[in-house]
Write a structure and sequence with these properties.
Blueprint (H helix, E strand, L loop, with lengths): L1 H29 L13 E2 L6 E2 L6 E6 H7 L16 E4 L8 E4 L15 E5 L2 E3 L2 H4 L6 E8 L3 H4 L6 E7 L7 E9 L3 E11 L4 E12 L3 E5 L2 E7 L2 E15 L2 E14 L24 E2 L6 E16 L3 E19 L24 E20 L5 E21 L12 E23 L4 E23 L11 E21 L4 E12 L2 E3 L17 E3 L2 E14 L4 E20 L6 E23 L2 E15 L4 E3 L21 E3 L8 E3 L11 E13 L2 E12 L2 E2 L9 E2 L2 E11 L3 E8 L7 E5 L5 E4 L4 E9 L1
Parallel strand pairs: 6-9, 13-17
Antiparallel strand pairs: 1-2, 3-8, 4-5, 6-7, 8-9, 10-11, 10-43, 11-12, 12-15, 13-14, 15-16, 16-18, 18-19, 19-20, 20-21, 21-22, 22-23, 23-24, 24-25, 25-28, 26-27, 28-29, 29-30, 30-31, 31-35, 32-34, 33-34, 35-36, 36-39, 37-38, 39-40, 40-43, 41-42
């Protein structure tokens, strides 16, 4: 525990030193007789399921307003646009506009299977979204998004060891109003969004909101057989939400919500051999607007939801019930090898580079059903003691079908070249009982403590019903594999807040979080033909985290500036890690004895004059796997053309077992940082407005930077990206009623690899291109 004490001491020192710097200016400001009108607005959050000033919440939180989201997602940018715009937050996906994977303080999950669990939980209007296809629900008509860093196991439960991302939509009100906006941009992108609402009588109000987005294909496909112009990267997506707020009495209200999403387009483009063995960065094979692939590429997602939220104010306490039912289905087809042909054909009939064998998969979710129910009781009033407690129930039924194709048209295969079929069925249940209380000891000092009991059960069946891929060579086994896992756990948190002055708060927090056991059973490709099929289904046992955090939250310069800073340290025991790829196109769950992490986060807002607003955020995250004997397969060993050096990449980790033809090297990953875990994330924005007529001419720019990331648990020269810097710019004219602007995203045309595929060849995928457009918006 020496390291824990060291980190906490350092964090406390930072907080105390920072407080010393700010107490004097705050006191000086109180002596001023004239108040500057250029003050920052108070930020209200519900991170503790109560409306509070962000500066009073004893944990690390960043809030993003609906207007800020609108700027970040201009031109059709999806939820991945939040990546790097908040300290310690990274968002990526190997599926494109679906299946976003979130990472907070370096903790996330690179698993691409449709039953993957993540340590970052998404809460959408008070409802947890468990399955990855639900987490990509479009963000429109939003009040705010809150990013809560660190374990949130007491109030939000399981699978929050890293934190949560909390979305709150605009709710109905008894005042009529709404907005609309439309934009047109590069690649014939059209984005339409709007909402309208108001009273339907004395006791009922409504809000209807929706969005439509579309974009043309813009990437050409060039293969020997033909050239197809504008073949990939297009999509059409629409979503809508209707909410009814019913108030039968002054103390009872019911919020009914119905919403849906439909997406039809192309999947993430995998690009064959855009890395060169022994070299860093993208090579000459990469062309953002051209690929050479002979596989299919399509993606479709449909999700629907109904939610009922009832609140009864009984005077001393309020009762809340939230019932929610989600359904969905999805299909994603991708050419995993990223190229055309295969090495056994004449040289002009395969490429780019070496294609040892074809790989194309279709993963579908024909059935997803999620039901959640939560009951809460919360105290009312202004007494020194406030509390809340509740019960939680989660039930999910999930079916997955995975298919492998032969794009070579093997005559032994069935129609459409389907040569492997695997189906998965998973049923999950979870129960929770929780409580949290805050006691105001004095006007300056308060303590908060919480406790939650979690109980999880999961039943899983995988059926491998067909394999004719290599009928005369590698006949993999068929059969059925069953797994059942369960666990229970107590999570808790304890925090204290001290008001050093009216404008400076110090806080410290200790929290314990828990992620339920997980199962990975996408057994399209078992580890080896001689290995029992059961070994292809892996189980990750529960992980637990203990996190220590302290910081300072300050409002400065007479309300014209905010500065928040915190330091943290955590120990994640039995960490669930996903070994992606390597020897085969599969995922495997492994548990590391421990992952340690430490760092800091800072948020700054400054309004020097009424027309100018500056913000900045910075985070440092150092993660380390601590397990002396932990190994994983490195990249595939398919380079038979360079025998005996058959490994695709150049591992930087200690080699335990050397690579052999079609047998990947085994490397030790003790001491490695986690994948998709940059040490540095920074963001900054500036907005300046000049009054003109009844409105203002304004300019807004935003920037996000992240440092080096590794794509996998192992480290190699090739499967990494050094840095990414993306910026945006918006200029326009705005009044109280309308806003006309021009925008550009990824203004510097940054090209960065964001992920890779390592079992077949040196395949990668990249960030989004530069887009620009014009937008008109109005509100009433």
């Amino acid at each position: 525990m020496r390291s824990v004490r060291s980190i906490m001491a350092s964090s406390a020192a930072i907080a105390v030193a920072t407080t010393g710097l700010f107490i004097a200016p705050a006191a000086f400001a109180q002596d001023e007789t004239a108040q500057n009108s250029a003050t920052l607005n108070e930020i209200v959050v519900t991170a503790q399921r109560r409306e509070e000033n962000l500066q009073d919440v004893p944990l690390s939180v960043t809030a993003v307003s609906g207007d800020q989201l609108g700027a970040l997602t201009a031109g059709g940018v999806d939820i991945r646009g939040m990546s790097g715009r908040v300290p310690s937050l990274l968002v990526e996906s190997s599926f494109g506009r679906t299946f976003p994977r979130f990472y907070i303080r370096g903790l996330g999950n690179t698993d691409f299977d449709f039953n993957a669990s993540q340590p970052v939980s998404l809460i959408y209007d008070d409802v947890v979204l468990e399955n990855p296809i639900l987490k990509g629900f479009p963000i429109f008509d939003m009040e705010r998004v809150e990013v809560l860093r660190g374990p949130q196991g007491t109030l939000f439960g399981r699978n929050t060891t890293a934190g949560i991302v909390k979305f709150d939509s605009v709710k109905p009100s008894d005042v009529a109003g709404g907005y609309g906006k439309i934009s047109y941009g590069r690649f014939n992108a059209i984005n339409v969004e709007g909402a309208v609402g108001g009273p339907l009588g004395e006791k009922v109000s409504v809000r209807i909101s929706g969005m439509y987005q579309r974009q043309d294909d813009y990437v050409d496909n060039v293969i020997p057989a033909k050239t197809t112009k504008d073949a990939f990267e297009g999509y059409k997506e629409y979503a809508a939400r209707i909410q009814f707020l019913i108030k039968p009495s002054d103390v009872f209200d019911i919020l009914l919500t119905g919403q849906f999403r439909s997406l039809d387009g192309t999947a993430r483009l995998f690009r064959a051999n855009v890395f060169t063995r022994g070299q860093e960065g993208l090579n000459a094979n990469f062309d953002r607007y051209r690929v050479s692939t002979d596989g299919k590429n399509e993606q479709r997602v449909d999700t629907q939801n109904m939610t009922a939220r009832m609140t009864y104010d009984a005077g001393p306490v309020s009762f809340v019930s939230v019932s929610s039912y989600w359904t969905g289905d999805a299909t994603s087809v991708g050419d995993v090898d990223g190229g055309f042909g295969a090495n056994f054909l004449p040289r002009n009939l395969y490429g780019p580079g070496e294609i040892p064998f074809t790989a194309e998969t279709r993963d579908s979710v024909p059935n997803l059903k999620q039901f959640t129910q939560e009951f809460r009781i919360a105290s009312n009033g202004d007494g020194p003691l406030s509390y809340q407690a509740g019960l939680f129930y989660f039930n999910e039924n999930l079916d997955i079908v995975s298919k492998n194709y032969s794009t070579m048209g093997d005559p032994n295969n069935a129609v459409d070249g389907v040569n492997i079929i695997v189906s998965q069925a998973q049923k999950s249940k979870a129960y929770g009982v929780f409580g949290s209380a805050t006691y105001q000891v004095t006007d300056k000092l308060s303590f908060t403590g919480g406790l939650r009991y979690n109980d999880d059960q999961r039943d899983f069946v995988a059926v491998r019903s067909k394999d004719t891929q290599f009928p005369n060579f590698l006949q993999n086994p068929l059969g059925t594999v069953r797994r059942n896992v369960s666990d229970n756990n107590l999570t808790w948190d304890l925090s204290g807040t001290y008001a050093a002055t009216d404008d400076v708060n110090l806080y410290a927090r200790v929290a314990r979080g828990y992620r339920a056991p997980s199962i990975q059973g996408r057994i399209l490709f078992p580890p080896a033909t001689s290995t029992p099929l059961e070994s292809g289904v892996t189980v990750g046992k529960s992980e637990t985290i203990t996190s220590y955090e302290s910081g300072v939250k300050s409002t400065l310069l007479d309300g014209r500036a905010r500065f928040n800073l915190n330091g943290f340290y955590y120990e994640l025991k039995d960490a669930q890690l996903t070994a992606v790829g390597g020897g085969v196109n599969a995922n495997r769950l492994i548990n590391a004895a421990m992952v340690r992490g430490y760092g800091f986060e800072a948020d700054v807002e400054f309004k020097p004059v009424p027309q100018l607003l500056l913000t900045a955020g910075l985070s440092y995250n150092n993660t380390s796997i601590r397990d002396a004997g932990l190994t994983t397969a490195a990249c595939g060993a398919t380079r038979v053309d360079t025998f005996p050096n058959v490994s695709l990449c150049t591992p930087l980790d200690p080699i335990v077992v050397a690579a052999a033809p079609f047998s990947a090297a085994i490397v030790n990953i003790n001491g490695n940082s986690l994948p998709q875990s940059p040490k540095w994330i920074a963001n900054w924005t500036a907005r300046y407005g000049v009054p003109v007529g009844d409105g203002e001419v304004y300019a807004f720019t935003d920037w996000a930077y992240r440092s080096k990331i590794n794509f996998f648990l192992y480290e190699s020269v090739e499967f990494q990206d050094k840095r990414m810097l993306e910026g945006g710019l918006r200029v326009g004219y705005k009044t109280d009623a309308f806003d006309v602007s021009a925008f550009v995203r990824n203004i510097t045309k940054d090209t960065s690899a964001v992920g890779g595929i390592d079992f077949n060849n040196l395949t990668g995928f990249v960030n989004e291109p530069r887009v620009w457009g014009v937008e008109a918006a109005f509100k009433f």
